[in-house]
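Take one protein record:
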Amino acid sequence: ILHTVKSFQECYKILVDENYKGKILLHAYNSNEKIFFQFNKKFETYISLSLKTILQNKTKAIPLEYIFFETDDNNDQDIKETYKQFAKTTKTDKRDLLNIVWKNFQTLKKS
């Protein structure tokens, strides 16, 4: 799990230089799609999104099988609202979204 603030390129370089082979979860992801695809091309990469990031529409092209949700950037935010907003934004059924995230969790924990 990587919690990076404006240091994606530095982290990427370290992982490549160290020949890292595992899965990655970019916690509190707030960057653009380009960074995700750079990581995912080299590593199996997952991201966790907050409501704030979802509302910014910066991650719409990221496949659902790499997504998790979080509320770390707002202690008053209900995780249900985060799921609801993402489902609305991406026109994904909420139950399908819950199942996808559960499957992502099961896949990630196998590492």
